Amino acid sequence: MSRLSGMGGRLYRGEKSFNIIGQRRRFYALSIIVIIIAGVALSVQGLKLGIEFKGGSEFTFTAPGSTIELGQKAVTDSGLTSETIVQKIGSDKIRITTKSLTNAENDAVENAIVKDFNIPIGEINVLSIGPSWGKDITHKAIQALIGFLLVVLLYLALAFEPKMAQAAIIAVVHDIFITVGIYALVGFDVTPATVIGFLTILGYSLYDTVVVFDKVRENTRSITSTGKYTYSQAANLAVNQTLVRSFNTSLIALLPVASILFVGAMLLGAGTLKDLSLALFIGLATGTYSSIFIATPILASLREREPAMQALAKRVAMRGPQTPGDAVVIKGDAEVSNIVTSTHSKENRERGPRNQPKRKSRR
Fold this sequence. Notes:
By secondary structure, the protein is of the alpha+beta class. Among the domains are: 3-49 and 171-192 and 212-308, no CATH class; 56-129, 2-Layer Sandwich (Alpha-Beta Plaits), CATH 3.30.70.3220. It is 67% helix and 10% strand. The protein has helices at residues 3-13, 24-44, 51-54, 68-77, 103-117, 131-159, 162-186, 192-219, 223-226, 231-268, 271-304, 307-319, 342-351, and strands spanning 48-49, 56-62, 85-89, 93-98, 125-129, 189-190, 327-331, 334-338. It has a four-stranded antiparallel sheet. It is elongated and about 85 Å long. The protein starts with a helix and ends in a 12-residue tail after the last helix.
């Protein structure tokens, strides 16, 4: 058995535990710091919207020995004075992005490219998108995101409980904001592929959160009747029981996405691959973190405010701490306690053997 699987078994049985719920303020502080950095990046740099959202013209062509400086010279030779973006894709491909151009301006840029790069005009791929179409795409993307969140909120409220839905949505908003902030920080263009990546990572984040919440619900189903553990203690056990599983699934998902990001951004320079893979990579990592360290602690905080859970916490406190060597596993309504400790052994030695009463003989 590998060391990781052995660790997972001990975490599941409760033999080893990380106090994630008890240390939630540290994780909240870490998330707040990252959110502040993301907010500063958004306010200072903002998002670089692709032409699909803001409208404009895009000229893409392949030419041996092409450079960004030569592309900028072609724009200058065309007489265009508005702001343009010249990017190199791969080793010999250039992409020039401008604002929306008239037919005359468009022809002037194409002629300058043909002259400076010495390529046929038919090899220039031109994409023109009007500003009204870009605004329509932006509104549809926002509507899709809001609709997604509402459907998820309704499903979680019906399938689990309203407080679980609240905690899950807070974690999703946390993931979105951090991902968007990092996008602004690195300066990648926001394209339709980015929106697809955002929706994908939201689904993955919720999937991981639902797995943890399902275990929390299983562990807390009859918690008030047994009175053995507080809600936070049972939720912390659920997080530890799913910790290794979340780590394994996230690692398996991140490895191919990291490969796509490396190949797309560094080797091929492909815009679509780069935009999609960056959103997926950041979102997968953030979603895994939030499902364990944000969503479940928030759920525990919300539930601990309930009068029933506060009364339960008082009953558990009156019982005092459990024996340090106790190994406890809560599984649904069944509770299995394996109380075999050195303390108990010491007590048995001090008491000595138990004397059985002598039986009287009958005559």
